[in-house]
Amino acid sequence: MLIIFKKWLFIIIGSTLFLLRTVSIFVPLLPTVLFYLLTTYFLNNISDRLYSYFTDNHEYQTYI
What we know:
81% helix; mainly alpha
């Protein structure tokens, strides 16, 4: 039960940070990079399958 709650909490926080990141592109006072990094952290910690998909991605391996 706690794992399911944590998963949904991370989805909600990650989605909210994604929206803030999108808004921060147009508003000069909001930190875009911070929201980008936090979004990546929360959405990658939802599941191991999503994390492995992201790290095995060709673009990720090329640029990171």
